[in-house]
Amino acid sequence: MTRLVGLLALALVLTGCSTDPLADQYRAGSNKGFIAGDGSVTEIAAADRGAAVAWSGVDETGAAVSNTDYAGKVLVVNFWYASCAPCRVEAPALQKLNAEFSGRGAEWLGVNVRDQAANAIAFNQSYGITYPSIMDVDGGAMQLAFSGSIPPNAVPTTLVLDKSGRVAARILGALSTPSILETIVRDAIAEVPAA
């Protein structure tokens, strides 16, 4: 009995040492349907970015889309789905930045991780989204393509790819300060592409 009490006490102590916010969200059991990011921004120096990420998929209209379609451009990739509350909150800011950078060296692409095309189209109409989204619900190929050194671990997550197709930055969670993404995109546009 004493040994059982000791093991239980040790387990409680070890559990108390855990400060993983993602694990805490899971344990909370809120049934919100997603693990929220903390809004942290990770920028990767050009020399540390590694290889370009190769990816492809089909957007909500059925059109094929791949990394080659964005060669030489900065690409903002936003992982989202329609019933994700933070995704709905950040949608207007993403669309505003998309419009601001249209024709200026940066493009936007969504990656819908849960919905069917009809839901994505309805979301786009509701929020005025004009950029396409790859439908990634069936195979998760886009999530897998970016699962390397700086994966999209939460929804929403926004990645900025440089002109060479390498991940230059990640915003893990909702875009709370659009000016941060705007600055990252401007800096990426100003960079000289990797040889």
Automatic annotation (TrEMBL):
Main location: other
Gene3D superfamilies membership: Glutaredoxin
Transmembrane segment boundaries: none
Annotated PROSITE patterns: PROKAR_LIPOPROTEIN, THIOREDOXIN_2
Residue ranges of every copy of the Thioredoxin domain listed in the record: 51-194
Subcellular location: Cell envelope
Protein keywords: Cytochrome c-type biogenesis, Disulfide bond, Redox-active center, Signal, Signal-anchor, Transmembrane
One protein family per Pfam: AhpC-TSA
Signal peptide: 1-23
PANTHER family for the chain: THIOL:DISULFIDE INTERCHANGE PROTEIN DSBE
Protein name listed in UniProt: TlpA family protein disulfide reductase
